[in-house]
Amino acid sequence: MSQTLSRRSFLRGSLGGVGLTLALPVFDAFLNNAGTAWADGAPLPLRFGTWFWGCGMNPGRWNPATVGTDWELTPELAPLAAVRDSLNVLSGFSIDLDGHANHPHISGVMGTLTGGAPPKPEHVLAPTLDLLISDAIGGSTRFRSLEMAATGSPRHSYSLRGENVRNPSEVSPLALYTRVFGQGFRDPNSATFEPDPEVLLRKSVISAVGEDRKRLERELGSHDKHRLDAYLTSLRQLEHQLTVQLEEPPPLAACIIPEAPEATEVSAEIEEAVGNHALMAEVLALALACDQTRVFNIVFSYGASNLHKSGTQTGHHQLTHEEFVDAALGYQPQASYFVDRSMEAWSSFVGRLAAIEEGAGTLLDNCLVMAHSETSYAKDHDITGLPFMTAGRAGGRIVTGRHITGTGDPVTRIGLTMQQLMGLPVERWGIGAMETNEPVGELFV
Question: What pTM was estimated for this model as a whole?
Fold first, then answer.
């Protein structure tokens, strides 16, 4: 049987002139003998994601003292003990402003994700890293990417194709669940599948808009042509999502449809943010297991983090600037509290991916997640020595358990590495002084 069946095997038929397919259950024959790939040798789905927290860390309490595999957890990395061996910590990578001003809470994150420091706060010099990767690997899933923010604003998203083209974040776990598993969700393990005629009609309308592009371009100036290109790119992505709905999904053993979460309050109050993040992580993990998307972006707290404790409006960002450094401790204890809670949330997210079995390993084994912040020491808006972490083994392409320091190298080395690990044929990346052809070689297997 293993020689004749593949993960895409199904039975065909028709009913009233409508084509039907009958999916087969998940057989061991779908996988190779080791459970590490499909039986035909194709790799299991590979996913990429970003996880962002605002207002950085305290370098002396976050950066490990030694490099390599024998590094010890520092006070602000202590919450990562349970997932330490699934992570890499990268320190000492910085933003080169290339003669531009340091725009607080913007230059760091946009330099990281676009490869160049923005000359003005609103400038987006290139599509963000996640979009470069989703353009390459997001073509076979219902959603090219999913964006989430735990603190209540759809604009808390760093997935941008241009100044006015932002992928908004879902801010409600229930809304995220409805979007992924509600109308339009196709269970890959369902016994039947029937294309929706309304989808067919909507697809033809979007295709007609795309075909009219050349005529309209002749009538537009250069700036509007750029906007049109960004707009049609978004439409093409939607068209693809609709097209995917017309195809029979392959069965996936790890896909289990969760129960809908209860409605929750959405705000920057720390306990609500932690709770919403945990619920969204649950939905996302199962969306990945069901191959609804292969790219995602999570914002635990935005740049200039407004996380705050219940009963007070004094937030994390305000504390980084107004709280005195405790003379005995050597840091700001109230501000550092939010660093600790951010690391706890990151640890729980990594643990959730690791808890889902997939083939001979876990969902995390087939993920590459880059965690980052927009500043190192937020009190000074410092963009040198930005904190980074990776989680997952990218299908066996990356080593884990290491601390690597960049000693002032540009953060684009990390972005180039992420693209190469995800299979993109790119040898150089970055803009101006940040351009590099040197990936972080210590990460590669």
Answer: 0.85
